[in-house]
Amino acid sequence: MGILTSLALWKPPRRTRGTWADPRVRAGTNQDAVRTLNTLQTNASFLEQVKRQRGDPQTQLEAMELYLARSGLQVEDLDQLNIIHITGTKGKGSTCAFTEHILRSYGLKTGFFSSPHLVQVRERIRINGQPISPELFTKHFWHLYHRLEQTKDCNSCVSMPSYFRFLTLMAFHVFLQEKVDLAVVEVGIGGAYDCTNIIRKPVVCGVSSLGIDHTSLLGDTVEKIAWQKGGIFKHGVPAFTVPQPDGPLAVLRERAKQISCPLYLCPPLEALEEGGPPLTLGLEGEHQRSNAALALQLARCWLQQKDHQGIGELKASRLSVQRQLPLAPVFQPTSHMRHGLQKTEWLGRTQVLRRGPLTWYLDGAHTSSSIQACVRWFRQVLRRSEKPGSGPEVRVLLFNSTGDRDPAALLKLLQPCQFDYAVFCPNLTEVSPTGNADQQNFTVTLDQVLLRCLEHQQHWSRLDEEQTSPDLWNAPSPEPGGPVSLLLAPRPPHTPSTGSLIFSCISHALQWISQGRDPVFQPPSPPQGLLTHPVARSGASVLREAPAVHVLVTGSLHLVGGVLKLLEPSLSQ
Asked: Which of 270, 299, 300, 564 is the most exposed, having the fewest neighbouring CB atoms within 10 Å of its CB?
């Protein structure tokens, strides 16, 4: 029978709140659970599946409701989670992290569902800011997996949910079992047809900065993408967004109007700081101020809806800009809010690791606008850093890009950082990552990902050749005074070309870059042939002798996660 018919006839099993009668748990390790989870498809193949089925995307939500029912829950049960639902193209994860930490600072027990994970899949489901334990993950995984296996219908086109859907279901069950006061839920892709959008009654919704990403799924204009993102709006549920270009902002306004969703525009952080001390953010980068402004509104609205005290006094504002939406409240942030913003950590986003002569700059930016923000942050941090006493500093780019993103456009934005070496590798920690299921990806072969790296290197070489022409650097910016002109201004013409290399995995790339000088990353002797390429040989000598080496890792959150796994072994424990 079809999905809609199956849903109509499905009778949920006998259950209690967030658990099941007769819960049989399979014995096994956490890695056994993760390996089984990996068989449910990874994100890349799920995207391909959605592309094929997007003719009737509503069917996807119907299928998710069926999975939820088969797992022992109904959509009404999710109302108990007091959800904050957040979407956007860039900054949605950081906004979630800020929001969760602010509310945790009020003494509330928080749940937080996000994606992707960096090192371990447990990171996607957090209680009070911490990934759930391996024991809790294993327990809930097998509960849910067995329940869904027991309720499979051989005649239905629906059997087991895909990877992301399964984790979404599991997060809901964990949060109900752990009796959280609220759950911050980050949308996976888009909004309207994302599997998290089975949530009926969130307390408040948020939309971070919009841009171009996942075009094959969401559309090739910011307006089309805005329509998808606005799909999380619900009747009567307040929603907030940050300043957006006029086109997508008009789409969000129309989406909200159609279903009577009160939508507000967040005032800038400066308006909330006025008359008080400046706010200190735990996440670096000027672009994080927009995310923090949205998080403050979401947290305050949630507290207000739940009749909490101490939500920040309203204050007069001198803001007089013309706007398409009503302005959200301007208020004095409370001490809890200040503490939450200051203590927020979100690994792999504008993160700096200083290790002797090496400094690693980690940012999972993967869209044009987020790469621009990453470059501004990287260059600002470099300007603030202390200069070594003698000898030239060395700058290294470690890059990869996946999916339907345009690597040439991203690499062009990175050129003004004046890298001495550009290194490309796939998102594989080791050539054969069989020892750690969290890093496994069954959807691509090594040949495929290395071919992609070769394309990246070729793009970089072409851009390097173009840089020798002074015309590029003298050309006016398409946005005068905007981020592009800021990026291009300092670069002189006729710059020596960058050496570029491809490595088969992250570990080999890090071994070449670090040359044994990172006190934490001390792998066994490098593999034979690591220095056979002339650039690798000469570069190794430069890297060994440089008084300071600055390494920017960007282009993919999965790449950043693999680097973190090797540089911060404690994250794997």
From this structure: 270
